[in-house]
Amino acid sequence: MSEASTSTPSSAPNGALDDRAIIWFDIDNTLYSASTKISQAMGDRIHQYFLDMGLEEEEATTLHHKYYTTYGLALRGLTKHHDIDPIDFDRKCDGTLPLEELIKPSEQLKQLFKDIDRSKARVWALTNAYQPHARRVLRILELEDQIEGVVFCDYAEPNFACKPEADYYHQALRKAGISDAKKCYFVDDNRANIDAAQKLGWNSAHFCEKGLETVEGGKIKQIGMERGTATPDNGAKIIADLEELREIWSHLFTSSTKK
Ligand SMILES: [Mg+2]
Question: What is the whole-number distance in angstroms between the Cα of residue 145 and the centre of ligand 1?
Fold first, then answer.
């Protein structure tokens, strides 16, 4: 697995001449289910970080949500308006998640990745997490050898980009050495991230575990209740199970394994 942050434009394993499609997988709440409640555990830690800065409960809740909705990630608001160390933030928040207790490798998911026809598609991860968390999840799920590159948010960079900003998707294309948006196939649990990808001409699948809850910006959200989820108006596919990728993008899977 190669590493590709938003700040080191290199390491596209196959270079600009690679003509294959790319399947981009989000990591959190996509490669594992929201039922793990990892987003809740992340939200709790971020809230605690605000409290440790000296904020009162209510103020912490308000600011956490405001930064998330304004900047896409609470951390970006924190670095913009407060003197905090983003690496320390990552260590205290994502770094202390008991992931080994919450997620396990899945033979079915591993097989899904193995059944992607690599003569037709490369497989990359595209996450808003920092590299240590991204790598840790992929290692626990035993998917590291199935992912050729990881585009992650580089918390060490001032003003780093993140989904759903168009810039972040453009950076991802540069990292992977691909210019044709139509060759991009993107899977993410976040509707705004999907809509942004669709706008850029990517093929997208919204992994939507309707009925479950997730925490975004410190607030509980009912999955599947956001705009466009019931009736997609921009061509994005909606899937409830990653296995459905075998059908909606059947041309990217080995023919013997299509279901
Ligand atoms: Mg996600």
Answer: 20
